[in-house]
């Protein structure tokens, strides 16, 4: 088996979502044995060697069955935008628990799709590292902060390894000034996930999910060296055309989380 292909099957939750489809296509093409799952049907042709099973993250028994024999779980499932707490609660909190229980039973590594929104209320004038405080910018970001904390607890208590990927803006290309800092290319995402699965030992590590964006930099000092990943792509070629593409909202423009920070914002004295 090639060195870049895991010896055991890999479970991918959220396989029908935008990033799930990217990973299913790229990892499947690399020869990975994938077990894909989502609450929604998989809209593409299944990669060779892959299976798809419709399942709700709230169904712990289904997750246990899907994870049986897997060496890693790529957890990209759940609500992926800011929503009311009750909509976040089931998929993003209870569902996460089911994923970690499956990982504990199988001794599987978890690659958790965390988010820049777990630290979204840091100001853009800052440069922060992976050890700086979690400052979620809404219920979605709060669920990602919770996920990182749950993963750390499962590492300390059960020895379940995790890589928390704080994804910035993973799109075909950046579309505004904020993404000159937060942009993550699909190819860099695939390479990051590959190394997160194949690295010899990761403990409970945090990696900023951003490409090599030097025109605007917010994030530094994470665990990328531990997993052996370095981004190859960059938002810098878009800097000239995007540097003035900003909103008129002072909250959105002040904080790293952007528009998510402004949703439901009600501080009477303005930005903190």
Keywords:
272 residues, alpha/beta, Rossmann fold, 7-stranded parallel β-sheet, two-stranded parallel sheet, 10 helices, 35% helix
How would you describe this protein?
The relative contact order is 0.13. It is globular, with a radius of gyration of 18 Å. 35% of the residues lie in helices and 16% in strands. It is of the alpha/beta class and 272 residues long.
Helix content: 25-40%
What portion of the residues fall into strands of 2 or more residues? Answer: 15-25%
From the 3D structure, determine the CATH topology: Rossmann fold
Give the N-terminus to C-terminus distance in angstroms: 54 Å
- The number of helices is 10
Indicate the low-confidence ranges by residue numbers. Answer: none
Identify the CATH architecture: 3-Layer(aba) Sandwich
Per CATH, the superfamily is NAD(P)-binding Rossmann-like Domain
Task: Count the beta strands.
Answer: 11
| Approximate shape | globular
Largest sheet: 7 strands, parallel
Enumerate the strands of the largest sheet in spatial order, edge to edge or round the barrel. Answer: 3-2-1-4-5-7-10
Tell me the number of structural domains.
Answer: 1
Structural class: alpha/beta
CATH class designation? Alpha Beta
What is the N-to-C succession of helices and strands?
Answer: EHEEHEHEEHEEHEHEEHHHH
Using only C-alpha atoms, the radius of gyration works out to: 18 Å
């Amino acid at each position: 088996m090639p060195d870049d292909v895991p010896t055991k099957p890999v479970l991918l939750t959220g396989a029908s979502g935008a990033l799930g489809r990217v990973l299913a296509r790229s990892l499947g093409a690399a020869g990975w044995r994938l077990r894909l799952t989502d609450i929604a049907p998989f809209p593409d042709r299944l990669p060779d060697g892959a299976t798809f099973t419709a399942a709700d993250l709230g169904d712990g028994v289904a997750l246990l069955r899907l994870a049986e024999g897997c060496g890693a779980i790529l957890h990209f499932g759940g609500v992926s935008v800011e929503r009311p707490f009750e909509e976040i609660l089931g998929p993003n909190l209870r569902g996460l628990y089911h994923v970690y229980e499956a990982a504990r039973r199988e001794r599987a590594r978890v690659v958790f799709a965390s988010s820049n929104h777990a630290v979204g209320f840091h100001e853009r004038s800052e440069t922060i590292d992976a050890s700086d405080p979690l400052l979620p910018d809404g219920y979605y970001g709060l669920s990602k902060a919770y996920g990182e904390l749950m993963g750390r607890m499962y590492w300390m208590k059960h020895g379940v390894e995790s890589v928390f990927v704080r994804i910035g803006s993973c799109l075909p290309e950046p579309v505004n000034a904020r993404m000159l800092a937060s942009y993550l290319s699909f190819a860099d995402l695939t390479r990051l996930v590959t190394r997160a699965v194949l690295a010899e030992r990761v403990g409970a590590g945090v990696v900023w999910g951003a490409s090599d964006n030097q025109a605007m930099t917010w994030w530094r000092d994470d665990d990328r060296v531990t997993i052996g990943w370095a981004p190859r792509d960059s938002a810098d070629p878009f800097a000239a055309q995007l540097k003035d593409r900003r909103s008129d909202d002072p909250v959105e423009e002040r904080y790293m989380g952007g528009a998510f920070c402004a949703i439901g914002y009600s501080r009477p004295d303005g930005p903190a």
